[in-house]
Design the sequence.
């Protein structure tokens, strides 16, 4: 059995707990266990790097130190905001003894910056896309997905060294192994507004509206994300967006782990898909986005 | 050509920790991100999802910093509309860390109270967020939203914004996504100490957020 250290982050223990449920339910049949980092702290997210750069280093560093103390070689952080912050600090610490010394004093634990941090797609890559393909029980031939990477899965590329920041394909590769088809579209790496959901709602609605519109215009019948904030903005806020723009997107937004789980035969309720805001009736196939194209163009 | 991103990041940290003098550390931070390498191609602005609403485009912010007009950059609305998506930093042909510059400017603007009134809500939210982590080690969504709404209301007296998401609560409850009491870490004392070391004035942050309004007038 494969085991990874697990850094859930605040969102997955808050209103995005359906993402945690999905991740755990889909990894179980693949024989992957997750061991939660003991007494982890918030990574500081946008607030820390906006207001205090020392905090933006120290909060992730404390978590990296906990992972090192407890002997985790790999830590899975399903939220790209968390994983990016952790990796950024990892890289800053590596090769900078002066910074390591200073940060270790601040966080009260020695920290080297040696832990490998994995996002959701990287976890699937570690398991092996061929292994996943072999485990598929219900091929997703009805799914035409627009893979939405957003910002921090691939950016900043120098730091993350994961996939192409302009034309990523890693999510498509996983979905194609599940028998799903994917669409080529324009908004795969555009921002949804992320952490400004509360403070600049109109901007978030505008950006998310563009993403939903473009996905439908290219024939997608669902959006696939690997980020709790993207999911919140595109799914939870979708009714708000519909009202604001006088449209009816009716676009289902899945976490990548939802679709992996569904293809492996895991029940949708077990994956937490029923907790999304835009849902299909159980058993009802996804419709083509083509019907929406005309009215939304 | 200097590679930025990671290196610039650590350079910023190093500089500001070694030189405790505030002015000097901020100056060094800009030097570390090699703002002078920007040749104004505008690629940052072309890709910026928030540029529609900005008073200065991202390339103009860089120009202001280049020409030593940091003060105007710091007083802009643009830096608070930046969503930190890193598209600018990623696409810059000269490897200028534009998003990193936005961070430094925001940190300066918050400290020097030069945040324009109509973007104060962004600062209020970020402060409430940090305050939340300081107390619990993790974000407590309900508490964070209440604090943000209250402080935001005290600032702009906008009742619509105060009430807006109230209808969301039952829908979140129905889905088991509403946690009245969020999680806290066991070792909250260490969180406090980390905050105290990084931001000695953190305890005053809440108060500061409340009296920020007076600072905003002079910002315009």
Sequence:
């Amino acid at each position: 059995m494969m085991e990874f250290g697990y850094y859930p982050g605040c969102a997955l223990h808050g209103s995005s707990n359906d993402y945690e449920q999905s991740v755990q339910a889909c990894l179980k049949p693949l024989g992957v266990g997750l061991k939660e980092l003991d007494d982890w702290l918030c990574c500081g997210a946008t607030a820390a790097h906006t207001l205090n750069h020392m905090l933006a280093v120290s909060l992730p560093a404390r978590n990296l130190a906990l992972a090192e103390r407890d002997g985790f070689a790999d830590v899975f952080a399903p939220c790209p905001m968390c994983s990016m912050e952790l990796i950024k600090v990892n890289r800053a610490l590596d090769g900078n003894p002066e910074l390591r010394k200073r940060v270790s004093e601040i966080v009260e634990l020695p920290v080297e910056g040696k832990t490998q941090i994995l996002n959701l797609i990287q976890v699937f890559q570690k398991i092996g896309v061929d292994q996943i393909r072999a485990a598929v029980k219900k091929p997703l031939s009805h799914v035409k997905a627009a893979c939405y990477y957003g910002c921090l899965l691939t950016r900043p590329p120098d730091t993350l060294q994961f996939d192409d920041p302009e034309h990523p394909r890693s999510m498509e590769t996983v979905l194609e192994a599940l028998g799903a088809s994917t669409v080529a579209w324009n908004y795969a790496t555009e921002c949804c507004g992320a952490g400004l959901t509360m403070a600049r709602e109109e901007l978030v609605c505008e950006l998310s509206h563009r993403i939903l519109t473009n996905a439908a215009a290219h024939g997608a019948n669902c959006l696939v994300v690997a980020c709790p904030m993207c999911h919140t903005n595109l799914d939870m806020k979708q009714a708000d967006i519909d009202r604001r723009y006088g449209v009816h997107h009716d676009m289902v937004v899945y976490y990548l782990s939802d679709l992996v789980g569904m293809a492996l035969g895991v029940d949708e309720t077990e994956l937490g898909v029923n907790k999304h805001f835009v849902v299909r009736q159980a058993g009802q196939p996804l419709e083509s986005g083509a019907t929406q194209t005309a009215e939304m163009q | 050509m200097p590679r930025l991103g990671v290196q610039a990041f650590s350079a910023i940290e190093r500089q500001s920790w070694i030189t405790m003098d505030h002015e000097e550390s901020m100056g060094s931070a800009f030097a570390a991100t090699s703002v002078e390498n920007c040749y104004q191609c505008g690629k940052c602005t072309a890709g910026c999802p928030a540029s529609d609403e900005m008073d200065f485009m991202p390339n103009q912010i860089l120009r202001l910093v280049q020409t030593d007009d940091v003060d105007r950059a710091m007083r802009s609305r643009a830096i608070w509309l930046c969503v930190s998506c890193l598209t600018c930093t990623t696409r810059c042909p000269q490897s200028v860390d534009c998003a990193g510059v936005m961070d430094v400017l925001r940190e300066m603007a918050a400290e020097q109270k030069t945040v324009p009134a109509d973007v104060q809500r962004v600062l209020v939210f970020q402060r409430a967020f940090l305050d939340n982590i300081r107390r619990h080690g993790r974000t407590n969504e309900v508490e964070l939203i209440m604090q943000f709404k209250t402080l935001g209301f005290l600032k702009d007296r906008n009742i619509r914004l105060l009430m807006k998401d109230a209808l969301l609560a039952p829908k979140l409850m129905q889905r088991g996504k509403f946690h009245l009491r969020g999680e806290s870490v066991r070792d909250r004392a260490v969180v406090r100490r980390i905050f105290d070391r990084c931001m000695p004035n953190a305890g005053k942050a809440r108060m500061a957020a409340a009296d920020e309004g007076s600072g905003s007038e002079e910002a315009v």
